[in-house]
Design the sequence.
């Protein structure tokens, strides 16, 4: 695995700013759903870190489920527009308050697809919380209820977000200079 310092462009959000914003979002969500029960749906795998931190700032009763969709083909760094459900929820969401927690909204295709799918299951309410919004890249309109940070049209990594499955563990969010990034070649393939 290449050292990220060889291809980092800039740190977009440092660890302290992430923690502060996640705490604010947790407080806001807790106020908005006061007196209600909430089902948090973590969008795997990019949403794991954000979801884990966010739920620790919730003061309302809530349960957790996960779902996995993919929109980027393997080895591609832009959304393919093809959205596939890798695995689905275990919870029946009919009549439940559902909050989807996702790492990034980019073209909007992934969220539009999952929202359309989940609406057919008749939840009581369905809202979206994203850590990062690449506003200017939107191709499909989606209503996002809670946003951590707006980010520029750059490839980002860290705090749960990967490049070829690596770098998710970093505590900050950075943009990558993909020209300097060397993809590892797996000799078994
Ligand atoms: P969309 O369907 O174009 O909105 O793509 C959203 C999904 O693409 C997110 O859930 C991310 O998994 C992925 N994605 C978008 N931008 C980036 C990025 O800069 N780095 C890593 N993954 C990204
Ligand atoms: Mg994702």
Sequence:
């Amino acid at each position: 695995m290449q050292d990220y310092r060889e291809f980092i462009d800039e740190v977009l959000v440092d660890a302290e700013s992430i923690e502060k914003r996640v705490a604010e979002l947790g407080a806001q969500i807790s106020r908005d759903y006061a007196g209600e029960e909430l089902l948090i749906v973590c969008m795997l795998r990019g949403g794991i870190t954000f979801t884990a931190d966010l739920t620790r700032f919730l003061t309302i009763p809530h349960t957790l489920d996960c779902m996995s969709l993919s929109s980027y083909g393997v080895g591609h760094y832009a959304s393919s527009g093809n959205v596939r459900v890798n695995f689905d929820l275990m919870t029946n969401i009919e009549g439940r308050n559902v909050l989807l927690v996702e790492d990034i909204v980019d073209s909007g295709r992934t969220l539009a697809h999952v929202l359309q799918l989940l609406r057919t299951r008749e939840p009581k309410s369905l809202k979206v919380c994203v850590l990062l919004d690449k506003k200017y890249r939107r191709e499909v309109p989606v209503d996002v209820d809670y946003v951590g940070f707006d980010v520029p049209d750059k490839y980002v990594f860290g705090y749960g977000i990967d490049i070829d499955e690596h770098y998710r563990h970093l505590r900050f969010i950075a943009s990558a200079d993909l020209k300097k990034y060397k993809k590892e070649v797996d000799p078994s393939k």
Summary: The mean pLDDT is 93. The two ends are 17 Å apart (CA to CA).
